C-alpha cells in the first residue's frame, strides 16, 4: 500500500508539472465548454443549452482524459523506455498500472467538479440533484474509457503518430455522440454509427441523471454498454499491452 500511495503522488506530480498534460487533458474541455456556451442559445433536449452542453462536455472530458490522456501518457513512456525501466524495479507492474489509472481518474474527478463550478459561474447551471448517480455514471464512463485507453496503446506503434491517432478517434466520436450539441438533425447513417460508440451511452446516462433527474439504474442499457466496452478494452489490453518500445 505504501508503494501504491507513493506512486499515485508521483503520478500526480508528473501530471501537473507537465504543461501539455495540464492544458490538453485538464483545461481543454473547460475552455471548449466556455466557448460553446458563449455561442449556443435556446434549448437542447428540452433544457437550456448550457445545461445540455455541460452534460455533453462531461462525457467528452471522460473520453479526453481517461482515454486520450492515459493512452498518450503510456505510449510516450513506452517509447521513451520508461516502462521498460519500471519493469526492472521492485515496483510490481500491476501496482504501477493501477496507480496510473487511479491518478488519471483523480484528474477527471477534479475536471468534472470544475465543469460544474464553471457552468454555475457562467450560466447558473444547477448542480446534479442525484449526486450519487452522477458519480456512478461518471466513474463507469471514465473506467470504460480507461480500459479502452489501455487497449489502444497496443495499436499505436510510434510516439510521433500517437496524438494523430487519438484525435482521429476522440474528436469524431465526440461530434457523433452529442458532446458539442444535439445530434437529432444528423443524417441517419451518422446516428447509426453513434449507436455503437461508448461515448453516446455515457452522455445518455449523464443526460438522464443531470437533465431529467433520474437515477443511473434507470438507464440499464447505457450501463451495460459502457461496462461491455470497458471489459473489452481490458481484455484487449491484456493481450496487446507492451512494456518495451515498438520503434526502432
Keywords:
single chain; 248 residues; globular; 2 strands; mainly alpha; 76% helix
Q: List segments where confidence is low: pLDDT < 50 over at least 5 consecutive residues.
A: none
**Span of the ends, CA to CA:** 37 Å
Order of helices and strands: HHEEHHHHHHHH
Q: What is the helix content? A: over 70%
- What structural class do you assign from the helix and strand content? mainly alpha
So what's the overall shape?
A: globular
- Tell me the strand percentage band: under 5%
Give the rounded overall mean pLDDT: 92
Task: Specify Rg, calculated over alpha carbons.
Answer: 18 Å
Care to describe what's here?
The chain has one domain (2-240). Strands 1-2 form a two-stranded antiparallel ribbon. It has helices spanning 2-17, 19-39, 49-79, 82-87, 93-123, 131-153, 159-177, 188-194, 198-210, 220-240, and strands at 43-44, 47-48. The protein is mainly alpha-helical and 248 residues long. It is built from 10 helices and 2 strands, in the order H-H-E-E-H-H-H-H-H-H-H-H. The N and C termini lie far apart (37 Å). 76% of the residues lie in helices and 2% in strands. The radius of gyration is 18 Å and the shape is globular.
Amino acid at each position: 500500500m505504501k508503494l501504491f500511495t507513493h506512486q499515485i503522488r508521483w503520478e500526480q506530480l508528473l501530471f501537473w508539472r507537465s504543461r501539455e498534460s495540464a492544458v490538453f487533458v485538464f483545461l481543454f474541455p473547460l475552455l471548449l465548454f466556455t466557448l460553446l456556451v458563449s455561442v449556443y442559445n435556446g434549448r437542447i433536449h428540452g433544457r437550456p443549452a448550457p445545461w445540455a452542453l455541460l452534460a455533453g462536455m462531461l462525457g467528452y472530458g471522460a473520453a479526453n482524459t481517461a482515454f486520450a490522456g492515459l493512452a498518450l501518457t503510456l505510449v510516450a513512456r513506452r517509447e521513451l523506455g520508461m516502462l521498460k525501466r519500471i519493469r526492472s524495479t521492485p515496483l510490481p507492474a500491476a501496482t504501477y498500472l493501477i496507480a496510473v489509472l487511479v491518478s488519471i481518474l483523480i484528474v477527471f474527478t477534479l475536471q468534472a467538479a470544475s465543469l460544474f463550478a464553471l457552468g454555475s459561474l457562467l450560466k447558473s447551471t444547477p448542480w446534479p440533484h442525484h449526486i450519487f448517480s452522477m458519480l456512478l455514471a461518471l466513474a463507469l464512463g471514465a473506467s470504460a474509457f480507461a480500459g479502452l485507453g489501455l487497449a489502444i496503446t497496443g495499436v499505436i506503434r510510434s510516439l510521433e503518430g500517437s496524438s494523430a491517432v487519438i484525435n482521429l478517434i476522440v474528436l469524431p466520436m465526440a461530434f457523433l455522440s452529442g458532446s458539442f450539441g444535439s445530434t437529432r438533425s444528423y443524417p441517419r447513417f451518422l446516428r447509426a454509427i453513434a449507436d455503437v460508440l461508448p461515448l453516446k451511452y455515457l452522455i445518455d446516462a449523464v443526460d438522464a441523471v443531470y437533465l431529467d433527474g433520474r437515477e443511473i439504474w434507470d438507464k440499464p442499457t447505457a450501463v451495460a454498454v459502457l461496462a461491455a466496452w470497458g471489459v473489452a478494452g481490458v481484455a484487449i489490453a491484456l493481450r496487446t499491452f507492451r512494456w518495451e518500445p515498438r520503434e526502432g
